[in-house]
Write a structure and sequence with these properties.
Blueprint: H1 2-6, H2 8-26, H3 28-31, H4 35-56, H5 63-75, H6 79-82, H7 86-99, H8 105-111, H9 113-127, H10 137-143, H11 146-160, H12 162-168, H13 174-179, H14 186-201, H15 205-209, H16 212-221, H17 241-245, H18 267-273, H19 279-300
């Protein structure tokens, strides 16, 4: 109780931000009609996530939380242990609930501080005109399984030795970058900075191929109840606009969205609402123009 009372300002701000984010996602089809507004809101929220949730409130979720929960369920669940950190508890509760509504993308794309840092590293790379590397589709589909192997290894190790599992969980650079502000023994700093530099070349490299937390959330996200991201008949057949614009490569060549990889940036929804970019809209406009021309010709004759 005292811990919650001491951190009530952080709790209040965090809960208010989660309410705003929920309303935004519930009305995503409406807001996607205003791309400038959506982009500004997204970047504003990413800055909030990094600096308030990450650096200030220390609210970075971790794979450690996953195997701690599994071990707690195995040994006898005690909720008091999880209530010791109100920010982490609120974020985990919100993330768990929204996994069944929107999938993993809500957390990975909007509420993960290191994910926000990677987005900013990617933006910096483009600003500095660093050549962006696109991983070939075949290699991408193989590499995305690596994070699941890391997750299985960490969870299995935790049942043998929690201490060893916590040491191996340093594959996540969260402690180095966010908890210790990069002030740590140099190999950890080199690793964390190296991942951010890699993200300047390959968009969100760590999220896509190495993050065990993202893998764990994706497993639960398979049970989501809805597929919110709209698709139309021409998506993927033949239109590849959304796929080519999806920086995290979460859209398959046939137009289907891979919700296990999607970070819900909503860029594909924006394209679908854009009459100047969506092939389906362009074809409909062309048909309407032909129909008007034919009607005029009939009237003249």
């Amino acid at each position: 109780m005292s811990l919650w009372q001491e951190r009530w300002p952080q709790v209040t701000i965090l809960v208010a931000s989660l309410v705003v984010l929920t309303v935004f996602f519930a009305r995503q089809h409406h807001y996607s009609r205003y791309p400038k507004l959506l982009h500004r809101f997204r970047w504003g929220f990413l800055f909030f996530t990094l600096f308030f949730i990450g650096f200030y409130a220390q609210g970075q979720l971790s794979v450690v939380n996953i195997f701690t929960l599994l071990l707690s369920l195995y040994d006898g669940f005690e909720i008091g242990t999880f209530l010791l950190d109100p920010v982490i508890f609120i974020l985990w509760t919100f993330t768990f609930i929204t996994l069944f509504i929107w999938g993993r993308g809500l957390f990975c794309g909007w509420l993960c501080p290191f994910g926000a840092m990677q987005e900013m590293a990617s933006w910096l790379g483009k600003t500095l005109r660093v050549r962006q590397r696109k991983v070939p589709e075949a290699w991408h589909r193989r590499l995305i399984h690596l994070k699941y192997l890391i997750l299985v290894g960490l969870v299995g190790t935790s049942f043998h030795s929690l201490t060893l599992a916590e040491q191996l969980s340093e594959v996540e650079p969260f402690k180095t970058s966010l908890t210790l502000y990069f002030w740590r023994y140099w190999p950890f700093v080199v690793y964390a900075v190296g991942l951010l530099v890699a993200g300047m070349f390959v968009h969100k490299f760590f999220c896509r191929y190495l993050c065990p937390l993202g893998a764990g959330l994706a497993v639960l996200g398979k049970f989501r109840l809805f597929s919110w991201l709209e698709r139309v008949k021409l998506c993927g057949q033949p239109c590849q606009t959304c796929k080519n614009q999806c920086e995290i490569n979460a859209i398959r060549t046939d137009g289907r969205i891979d919700y296990n990889e999607c970070i819900q940036c909503l860029e594909c929804v924006v394209i679908l609402r854009d009459d100047t970019r969506c092939v389906d809209s362009l074809i409909q406009q062309k048909r309407q123009r032909r129909a008007r021309i034919q009607a005029v010709n009939v009237g003249v004759s």
